[in-house]
Amino acid sequence: MRTGPARILLWAFSALVGCWLIAPTLVVIPLSFTDKASLVFPPSGWSTRWYANFFTDPRWIDALLSSLQVGALVGVLATVLGTAAALALTRSGSRWVKASYALLLAPMIVPTVVVAIGVYALFLRYNLLGTPLGFVTAHTVLALPFVIIPVTASLRGFDRRLEDAALICGSTRWGAIRQVTLPRIAPGMVSGALFAFVTSFDEVVVSLFIQSPYLQTLPVKMFASITRDTDPTIAAAATLIIVLTTVLVLTATFVTARRNRVR
Asked: How far is the C-alpha of 102 from the C-alpha of 129, rounded, in Å?
């Protein structure tokens, strides 16, 4: 198939926009390898001392472990709840399905600072500020839309006659869902779980509102660090986040693309 001038211009424009969006992010990576004690670009020398400082400082390690633990719990919880919600939305004949779908996707649409203020007021009343339960609950609410969307897409492409066949063969409704439906929509669930983890791992606005001196996630620790000092340890932490989230997002994209090819 021929590639016309309009198509070439479109690809060139898309590449230019992509470079413009990721350029500020890519600047962080060389900053993390500077040999200076401040954030100066371009670096005049190279060193891994700031990565060593990150991995030897208990405060940074505690923040990283907190983010990983909260993110893992959010990934599991959001996947379970999001899959259940997607099943209900795709199989319900209620006239409120569209309204329910919009409500579940609201955390993706409503400004994060608005959500943060509401979460803070609610958690303050129930003593959930600065607790692991509070972090997991708040992050799960934010991550749910990123599970519901891919799982719903998978369910809409699922042939329910396979489930009916399992019921005819003597399976229970739950058995048919567990043995037939869930394995078929597993790629969508995996994608949703990865996106849920990334959403939690990167979250900073809501986390700033519900943090405590005893529990800080890595983005909150980075925000607090840059308000006090500007040593390149924060660039090393940012680079680690970039690498981790990029790998997870590419994995989710690969899983989704592979599922589409199989279909």
From this structure: 28
With left for phi above 0 and alpha for psi between -120 and 50, is residue 15 left, alpha or beta?
alpha
User: At residue 7, what is the residue type?
Assistant: R
Q: Between the CA of residue 226 and those of 15, 229, 259, what are the distances in Å?
A: 32, 5, 42
Q: CA–CA separation, 223 vs 234, rounded Å?
A: 9
Token digits for 136? Answer: 């997991």
What is the number of other CB atoms lying within 10 angstroms of the CB of residue 129?
A: 18
> Is 0.70 topped by the overall pTM?
yes
For the CA atoms of the chain, what is the radius of gyration? Answer: 22
CA 232 to CA 42: how far, in whole Å? 13
Looking from the CA of 156 toward its CB, the CA atoms found within 13 Å total 9
Query: What angle (nearest 5°) sits at the alpha carbon of residue 61, between those of residues 60 and 62?
Result: 90
Euclidean distance between CA atoms 126 and 231, whole angstroms: 38
What's the pLDDT tens digit per position in 208-236?
888 887 888 888 888 887 777 677 888 88
Domain ranges for the chain, please list them: 58-262
Yes or no: say if 157 and 259 are a contact pair by the CB < 8 Å rule. no
Q: Tally Cβ neighbours within 10 Å of residue 14.
A: 10
> What DSSP character marks residue 34?
B
How far is the C-alpha of 237 from the C-alpha of 55, rounded, in Å?
A: 10
| C-alpha to C-alpha distance for 158 and 190, rounded to whole angstroms | 16
99-128 tens-digit pLDDT: 888 888 888 888 888 889 988 998 888 888
Local structure of 209: helix, strand or coil: helix
Specify the DSSP class assigned to residue 160: T
Architecture of 58-262 per CATH? Orthogonal Bundle (1.10)
